[in-house]
Specification:
This protein is an alpha+beta fold. It has helices at about 40-50, 75-90, 100-110, 115, 130-145, 160, 165-175, 195-205, 225-240, 255-260, 310-315, 325-330; strands at about 1-5, 15-20, 25-30, 55, 95-100, 120-125, 180-185, 210-215, 265, 270-275, 280-285, 290, 295-300, 315-320, 345-350, 355, 360-375, 375-390, 395-400, 400-405. It has an eight-stranded mixed β-sheet with strand order 1-2-4-3-5-6-7-8, with helices on both faces. A seven-stranded antiparallel β-sheet has the order 11-10-14-17-18-13-12. A three-stranded antiparallel β-sheet has the order 9-19-20, with no helix packed on it. About 40% of the residues are buried. The structure holds flavin mononucleotide. This is Flavin reductase (DIM6/NTAB) family NADH-FMN oxidoreductase RutF/pimeloyl-ACP methyl ester carboxylesterase.
Length: about 400
């Protein structure tokens, strides 16, 4: 994620956090009342992982954006800010906006929507402003005023700057003109928006969809991002699909290797003991389970590997599955020149094979079979004993690089 500055209405400086690559379709995230862009952190990550360019904006008077000296926080200024940012983006994003941000986005997209955006997602947006909704917005904005100067995340002057009732009325007037695929997201436990109001609103939109997020009253808060991310990605995939993937093809060795590299794997170190008692081992990601009964696994070892001859002949061997902290061990057992076992804590296991300390799991095996496999041989082991550690994350390997899990 990097920080990007935009120019808003009357030159006000607006700050956004941007992630993903320029070529990916864009998503502009607009926070709600009493929030900053920080509230989107989990959603932004999930969207970037799903191949989207994410621009997470602080509205004027919020977070890292300018808190203008003239205190202009009227609806007009906020709407024109958003239109200015949309014009500077260079591609038409999906606009995703929460509460107050939804009113602003609706007003901003009432004109020329199709030129500025590819779609709209409105989350937790009060559809009629009764006393409860007005109090909710007021209460959220009021919190800033309670903090010492310098700590506040938004300008306390915002509280007096606009009238939720007026904003909701303005929004109601323009909603029918939003000529964009529009998703309305309601927390199933919401007290601000009734299910009937939500359904009626979506029915009034030219191209509306409704989704309810289970068990939540407010959807956009710091800890609810997983469920929302899944709904957003589903909507984006259907209504703002990514371009056709560009495939590369060929019958050459490089293309074959690169295509194989698309299969994400864990990483193991396969170990055995030489007849003279010296331990040997090499890094291998060609590990596969084979059979449950009998318990069999396999690993493919290059005929050219220095360790190959020992592994081929050894009666017993072990497969150690590496955890996220064992990347140095993976490099050591794939590299040249270093004494692989000198700096790796290990011990001889119950069945006489070298077991690396701290591995995610280790399988002590008896050699079951060795099959030829081109420039590799396929070593099949019968598992004599398995141990594993249930909490740590694995070391992963994908497209020639080490990786870590993104989702727990
Ligand atoms: C992530 C990773 C996975 C690897 N997988 C295998 C494998 O499945 N089979 C293999 O023979 N070599 C594999 N290698 C390469 C060997 O670890 C490497 O060639 C090593 O230096 C062989 O050591 P040796 O010649 O001492 O036996 C892999 C290397 C890395 C980094």
């Amino acid at each position: 994620m990097s920080i990007v500055q935009y120019r808003g209405f009357a030159g006000v400086r607006l700050e956004a956090e941007v992630g993903g690559t320029d070529d990916d379709p864009a998503v502009l995230l607009i926070h709600g009342a009493g929030q900053t862009r920080a509230v989107w952190a989990g959603v932004a990550d999930a969207l970037v992982q799903a191949g989207r360019r994410v621009i997470s904006l602080d509205m004027r008077g919020h977070g890292g954006s300018e808190w203008p000296a003239d205190g202009r926080y009227d609806v007009e200024a906020l709407v024109e800010d958003l239109r200015a940012v949309l014009a500077q983006l260079g591609s038409r994003p999906m606009v995703v906006a929460a509460t107050l941000g939804g009113w602003i986005a609706g007003a901003a997209l009432a004109r020329d929507a199709a030129l500025l955006a590819s779609g709209l997602v409105l989350i937790d947006l009060p559809l009629r402003v009764d006393a409860a909704a007005a109090a909710h917005v007021d209460e959220r904005l009021h919190e800033a005023g309670l903090l010492a100067p310098g700590q506040a995340q938004w300008d306390a002057r915002l509280r007096d700057a606009f009238d939720p009732g007026e904003m909701a009325a303005r929004f109601a007037d323009v909603a029918a003109n939003i000529m964009l695929p529009t998703l309305y997201v309601r927390g199933a436990m919401s007290e601000l928006v009734s299910p009937d109001d939500a359904a009626a609103f979506v029915g009034s939109l030219p191209d509306g969809e409704l989704v309810e997020v289970e068990d939540l009253a407010l959807v956009v808060t710091d800890d609810c991002n997983d469920a929302l991310g899944a709904h957003l990605i589903d909507f984006l995939e259907r209504r703002a699909p990514r371009g056709m993937p560009e495939y590369r093809a060929g019958s050459d060795a490089r293309t074959f290797r690169d295509a194989l590299g698309c299969f994400a794997t864990g990483v193991t170190v396969v170990t055995a003991v030489c007849p003279d008692g010296t331990p040997v081992g090499l890094t291998a990601n060609s590990f596969t389970s084979v059979s449950l009964d009998p318990p069999l696994l396999l690993v493919c070892v290059a005929n050219s590997a220095g360790t190959g001859a020992v592994l081929c002949e050894a009666e017993r061997f072990a497969v150690n599955v590496l955890q996220i902290g064992q990347q140095p061990a993976s490099n050591r057992f794939a590299g040249r020149g270093e004494d692989r076992f000198a700096t790796t804590p290990w011990e001889i296991g119950e069945f006489g094979t070298p077991v690396l300390h701290g591995s995610l799991s280790s399988f002590e095996c008896a050699r079951e079979a060795v099959h030829p496999g081109g420039d590799h041989f396929i070593l099949v082991g019968r598992v004599l004993k398995a141990i594993f550690e249930p909490r740590r994350d694995p070391l992963l390997y994908f497209r020639g690089k080490y990786r870590k899990l993104h989702f727990a």
